[in-house]
Write a structure and sequence with these properties.
Elements (H helix, E strand, L loop, with lengths): L5 E8 L5 H18 L5 E6 L5 E8 L2 H21 L2 E7 L4 H8 L4 E3 L8
Parallel strand pairs: 4-5
Antiparallel strand pairs: 1-3, 1-4, 2-3
Helix pairs in contact: 1-2
Length: about 120
């Protein structure tokens, strides 16, 4: 059972912010992450039909890759969260102490793997 891989599900309240700005910023960020972060395994933004809620699904091979991502996008997170307030940050997997410290600043709920595998 692998305990290194980390997944995150970020829920953002687009309807409580600025949907037009959020759409622009999130697409720009997705393109930047795809181009500049080869260790980011998954980075997918899902928007409900009413454009009220956005779900960002992320996956990293380990805590170092997650921390590298947060360092890379750090300056861009403020404007995105202002345009769509953070509702929930769910982290699935076991993270390093440093990653836990950083994620706690966002109010993350960290849930370690109980059972199962990935291929």
């Amino acid at each position: 059972m692998s305990t290194e891989r980390i997944k995150m599900i970020v829920t953002l309240n687009v309807g409580q912010g600025n949907p037009t700005l959020f759409t622009k910023l999130s697409k720009e960020l997705a393109e930047s992450v795809e181009s500049n972060e080869p260790s980011t395994m998954t980075y997918e933004w899902y928007m409900d039909d009413a454009a009220e809620t956005c779900y960002l699904v992320e996956a990293y091979p380990n805590s170092d890759a997650l921390l590298s991502h947060l360092e890379n996008v750090g300056a861009r997170l403020g404007p995105i969260i202002e345009a769509a307030p953070l509702s929930e940050l769910l982290v699935l997997g076991t993270v390093s102490e440093k990653a836990e410290e950083v994620l706690s600043g966002f109010g993350a709920k960290i849930v370690p793997l109980h059972a199962g595998f990935q291929r």
